Amino acid sequence: xxxxxxxxxxxxxxxxxxxxxxxxxxxxxxxxxxxxxxxxxxxxxxxxxxxxxxxxxxxxxxxxxxxxxxxxxxxxxxxxxxxxxxxxxxxxxxxxxxxxxxxxxxxxxxxxxxxxxxxxxxxxxxxxxxxxxxxxxxxxxxxxxxxxxxxxxxxxxxxxxxxxxxxxxxxxxxxxxxxxxxxxxxxxxxxxxxxxxxxxxxxxxxxxxxxxxxxxxxxxxxxxxxxxxxxxxxxxxxx
Length: 239
What we know:
Layout (H helix, E strand, L loop, with lengths): L1 H5 L8 H18 L7 H19 L4 H5 L2 H31 L10 H13 L6 H9 L6 H9 L4 H32 L8 H23 L2 H15 L2
């Protein structure tokens, strides 16, 4: 587990600037990627955990002292807010591709685009609730192109997308940066104030697998068929 302890150097001193750049770029790619999972929650968790390890292992502070240290929270929020900015900027990529290249869904090898388009139709079934759906979706670890691509295809106003998306992503990045702290608080509450890092590795792995599994489900499920069957059932109920 010595490698886990060496993680603290990732955000130490001048390296913190690089950590901010990593957060910005990875979160941007996580939002800008089309059809490929970029596990930005995994990266944010690791960067935040590096800061926590540095304050506890190198500086020798206990958990209460760390939580009361303003510099610690400044570093955590820096990683989170820069990540939120990267996510907000990356959201435009999926929207633009959908807005200008709707014909991608007609290609033989672009079946997942058609599925995403069907998912977008569900989101836009009630436009008054669409901003709320965008906000709630931004709270999830799923890549934004799953939602912003179909929104672009349907010419939904981008400014109505970016504002709730940006707010949601900031909350998301703050949550993932706080996760190592929540884990440590839970272990302390259970009387396990010191760990060898194994539980943190398990958490990171589960988080990554969950993100990829949900993303591929949305891309592979035939939402258009689902909408068609739902419409047929409603039509049958009408006398």
